[in-house]
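FAQ: What does the model actually see?

It sees only this:
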Amino acid sequence: MVRMVAPPSTLVAMPSPPSPHSSSTPDPVSGGVTGDGPGHRTASGRSGGSPLAPGSPAEVALAEVVGSIRGLDGTAAQAARERDAMLTKPPGSLGRIESLAVQLAAIAGASPAPIPEPAVVVVFAADHGVHTEGVSPWPQEVTAQMVAGFCRGGAAINVIARANGLGVRVVNAGVAAPLEDHDLLVNRPVRAGSRNLRVEAALTRAEAATAALLGVEVGMGLVDEGARCLLTGDMGIANTTPSAAVVAAATGSAAAEATGRGTGIDDATLAVKTQVVSDALARLAGRPPLDPLGLLAEVGGLEIAGLAGLCLAGASARVPVVVDGLIALAGALVACALQPAVAGYLIAGHRSVEPAASLALDHLGLAPLLDLDLRLGEGTGAALAYPLVRAAASVAAEMATFDDLGIDP
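And it is asked to produce this:
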């Protein structure tokens, strides 16, 4: 069983999953990908599978999804490497664009990989009971207001998505205020915000599993509608607090290492926020190690759970998932703990300035495509990185080979 654990003083950190960028799984352009079909084993030797125990109907359904995920296609990856060697350029001259093209081929099971379009940014929204601790200066009502803004098309993510030919879908996983229905909105709140993670579990296991399953269903539905790339987005006032707690617990980091300024809080508020994360982790001290769903329930949030489900959906459907910043990475940590093979389907869009984002990236073995000092969320970093993903597939598919030009390399 892959285990996530509690506070740094008593933790044994969760093992890092194999990924196309990790030391245990070499960069696919130089050789090596994780898994290869049913019954694959991870780089650590563990069989791929779900650490979920039988429980609620949502847990059972989630376990079925986790069990359906297979590793990357090594044959397609090798064919992509061989094709890359024949393209009319010096070997390695396009750097990580080349390794990204190989990863896309390994995901799709075809070389060259199909262009990953259309692509959709999926913004999961939820509120958090920990807001009452004073961890954010923004009123909780802003979550619902921003969701309305997404639906009207006027937020940053809408603008960036339009500029890059991306669709946008918004998912109400647990906003505290009622939301009006809209064509862009999947309005299925699991509950009206989480509980206060400083003093009690933020969610029940059933609630966490239901929110994750919601993410799976939305992701699979978009793939059924034709999407060939999923991008993660989030909205939720105070959501960097539970995200920092998830990352700290999953990586064995101290609260002070994982807690950042979020929307730009002052020193006094940062001290409060750090103590809240520390208290949440201390609440788990002395207990048996938590499984991924248990940790998500204790210190996570409904949009984090939804994002974990979206990552699972992408891996199950064999489409790439471009991961945004801290909140999305917290969800990705949970997804990869449930099934390490998920890491191979993830592409890190950017490195957020939030310290926990770098902790999560390092733990997952993901190298971000961009580093622009972003910290907005909404999926903006993933959307900005998407053109690089599309370009990588286009280069592999459309660039002439030496044979095409009659050149002997």
